[in-house]
Design the sequence.
């Protein structure tokens, strides 16, 4: 019963950046550093992944993710996520996370900003 939305993310303490993965270094649902070291303590539900997946797919599960992610806001923007092991917020606030949140809201409102089938090579 742990909400999971894996992606790379900044974290609010050393090592400051981790890759939350579906599969890496021979392990399922692994979290690693850029050098491949274990970062399992930093595995988290990613706010940007939650908003992005819900904008694209709008399933019951992605709705749960978006509701949970929506609770992780601050006056400076959205936190990066919620640590799975402790349930506490990952209080890193980054342009990366907040840009994806804004992009997902634009996508919900206006749809794709560009139709790839309409682009022609000139």
Sequence:
């Amino acid at each position: 019963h742990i909400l999971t939305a894996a992606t790379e993310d900044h974290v609010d303490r050393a090592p400051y950046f981790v890759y939350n993965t579906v599969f890496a270094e021979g392990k399922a649902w692994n979290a690693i550093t850029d050098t491949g070291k274990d970062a399992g303590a930093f595995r988290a539900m990613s706010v940007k992944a939650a908003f992005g997946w819900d904008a694209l797919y709008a399933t019951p599960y992605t709705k749960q993710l978006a509701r949970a992610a929506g609770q992780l806001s601050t006056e400076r923007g959205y936190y990066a996520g919620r640590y799975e092991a402790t349930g506490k917020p990952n209080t890193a606030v980054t342009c990366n996370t907040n840009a994806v949140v804004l992009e997902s809201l634009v996508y919900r409102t206006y749809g794709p900003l560009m139709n790839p089938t309409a682009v022609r090579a000139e």
